[in-house]
Amino acid sequence: MIGFFRSVREDVAAVFENDPAARSYMEVLFCYPGLHAVWGHHFTHWLWRHDFRFLARFGSQVTRLLTSIEIHPGAEIGRRLFIDHGMSVVIGETSIIGDDVTLYQGVTLGGTGKERGKRHPTIGNRVIVGSGAKILGNITVGDNCRVGAGSVVLRNVPPNSTIVGVPGHIVLRAGERVVISDPKEIRDPLSDVIIKLAKEVHELRERFQEHTHEALGAEPEIAIDEEAVTPRISPEELFAEDYMDYQI
């Protein structure tokens, strides 16, 4: 019980530290659903660890109904988790969250399939996850990382990194900008398809060029990519007779 009240004090202090809009203890205690969801998880996680699985799930659903935040009672959450706004935050069963983590609205810590065992992400200490970000699968986001809003993270992220995009790619590491010289490093399936299509179009152009050269024989080669030069003809020259008819 003493540990619970110590945790409550730390959670309230984390709100004041991370949210400049927090003005009073009464406001924080009664108007922060993220705080209520974390406290509810303390209770449901205790039930889950003591094999009261149905009561734990039922309690988590009540918390979800009241706060619009779903935290599976099996998830392991560190100290001073701050969920800002909190609407539509989902934390899966085997998720592990370190200390001093901040999650914004719409964040999902989810799985990628029907596999059993560890299938949700592990979040290190002092990580900030922007609104709408999705971190999926049994991956690890290292300490002191930042995940940009709307990003979809599908692979491990080393500590002290900033990751953005769909799929997520690292743009900063240890305070230094990461330059992507090869677009394939992003590992975007759509980009792979576009690169393949571009390659096929190039091959088709070369084959068409060969057939054109064979058909023309000794005629000079015509570059397909070169724009044809059209002669400039004024309207008076093109419609000379019409202009003559309407002259006064």
Characterize the structure shown:
This protein is an alpha/beta fold. It has 2 domains: 185 residues, UDP N-Acetylglucosamine Acyltransferase, domain 1; 57 residues, no CATH class. Helix content is 38%, strand content 17%. The chain is built from 7 helices and 16 strands. The strands form 3 sheets. Strands 3-6-9-12-14-15-16 form a 7-stranded mixed beta sheet. Strands 1-4-7-10-13 form a 5-stranded parallel beta sheet. A hairpin with a 2-residue loop joins strand 15 and strand 16. Helix 1 runs antiparallel to helix 3 and helix 3 packs antiparallel against helix 4. The protein is elongated, with a radius of gyration of 30 Å. The termini are far apart.
Topology:
Layout (H helix, E strand, L loop, with lengths): L1 H17 L6 H7 L1 H17 L3 H15 L1 E3 L4 E2 L4 E2 L5 E3 L4 E2 L4 E2 L4 E3 L11 E2 L4 E2 L4 E3 L3 E2 L4 E2 L4 E2 L7 E4 L4 E5 L2 E2 L11 H28 L18 H4 L1 H6 L3
Parallel strand pairs: 1-4, 2-5, 3-6, 4-7, 5-8, 6-9, 7-10, 8-11, 9-12, 10-13, 12-14
Antiparallel strand pairs: 14-15, 15-16
